[in-house]
Specification:
The protein is an alpha+beta fold. Helices cover 31% and strands 34% of the residues. The chain is built from two helices and six strands. A four-stranded antiparallel beta sheet has the order 2-5-1-6, with helices on one face. A two-stranded antiparallel sheet has the order 3-4. A hairpin with a 6-residue loop joins β3 and β4. It starts with a strand and ends with a strand. The model has no long low-confidence stretch (mean pLDDT 91).
């Protein structure tokens, strides 16, 4: 089985939703996670904190540079992810389609090198 990273691509405004507004989506995501576990596709998943609370570390030059905020200014950001096991890309695409529906966001799929 190949492992795939399913990245949830969101508008940063999703972090401004109230708990009450977000709860139906949280509940749907929890049910989806349970389905993935039952199917044997679940490896790991998680949501990410606000993009404006990110810290970027750059040690590619002569000095280490630590910067508050994301690496790049973008209209969308990574809001969370799943790592799933699937026999092929077609199976991963089907899982991603379900994930997109559940979290109401675009999903980017990438394989893990050497997985």
């Amino acid at each position: 089985m190949t492992q795939y990273l399913l990245s949830v691509v969101v508008d940063p405004s999703v972090y401004d939703m109230t708990q009450e507004e977000a709860q139906p989506q949280y509940d749907a995501t929890e049910r989806f996670n349970d389905e993935l576990k039952a199917e044997g596709a679940w490896v790991f998943a998680g949501g990410l904190g606000r993009i404006d609370e990110a810290t970027t570390v750059d040690n590619t030059g002569a000095d280490v540079v630590v910067k508050d905020g994301p690496y790049a200014e973008t209209k969308e950001c990574l809001g969370g992810f799943w790592i799933v096991a699937a026999p092929d890309l077609d199976a991963a695409l089907k899982i991603a389609a379900r994930a997109s529906k559940v979290c109401e966001a675009k999903i980017e799929i990438r394989t893990f090198d050497g997985a």
